[in-house]
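Deviation from plan, reported transparently: NAP complex.
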Amino acid sequence: MKTGSIMCEAEERVDPKPIRLVAAVSRSMGIGHKGSLPWSLPNEFKYFIDKITSVAEPGKKNLIIWGRKSFEPFAESLLPLPNCIVALLSRTLSSVPEHVYYVCRSVRDAIKKASKPPLSEEIETIWVLGGVESFAETMKHPWCDQIHITAIMEDYECDTFFPEFDRDIFKLAKEFPGIPSEIQEENGIKYAFQVYQRT
Ligand SMILES: NC(=O)c1ccc[n+]([C@@H]2O[C@H](COP(=O)([O-])OP(=O)(O)OC[C@H]3O[C@@H](n4cnc5c(N)ncnc54)[C@H](OP(=O)(O)O)[C@@H]3O)[C@@H](O)[C@H]2O)c1
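Because the crystal trials were delayed, the predicted structure below was used instead.
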């Protein structure tokens, strides 16, 4: 048996993976408005795609879990994502869109598939990119060890909000390896990269 593997009741091998959330949030924890992002911060978005979600050891990939509505605006312009396999959350889709590896009916199912062979042999980290339901479900998962937030220092009209999370369980790191600690500015908008770590 591979190091770190767990045998569960049915004698299936499960390889636990770090599961991490990524979101950009306004001062009032808003994340979306009318199906889109309320701001335009292309460098912030590119930073996460280039420096966070695509980073894996040679020969490994990361799994991206995306809710259907969050995924759709990016389906044509952004995919395929470098070094990533995409799992799409939907209870209604009956076919798998281009560049999507699999469609799942729940976050738990998406994680389960990625933590069992053969996929577990390829996957290093699971990144959950939203929306609300997947964020809320993921932060309760015992393997969820980090929440990466871009704290945008502005208020926007929003109809979608990042779920509350327990700040005794996830604590803001003063500094985090590889994450710029200085305040960023783009299009006159200031923001900071924050990492909350499970204690
Ligand atoms: N600022 C940020 O970092 C950020 C990140 C993500 C999203 N957003 C914004 O948030 C908004 C979209 O988020 P949202 O929460 O409304 O929608 P969403 O979660 O992206 O998409 C909702 C749809 O995804 C599927 N789904 C979601 N969770 C599921 C689950 N646990 N199991 C199975 N299917 C699931 C369902 O699809 P079916 O209807 O097909 O069943 C559901 O109707 C947009 O405005 C977007 O721009 C912002």
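Residues 23-24, 31-32, 35-37, 67-70, 89-93, 105-107, 129-134, 137, 160 surround NAP (CB under 6 Å). We consider this an acceptable substitute for the interim report.
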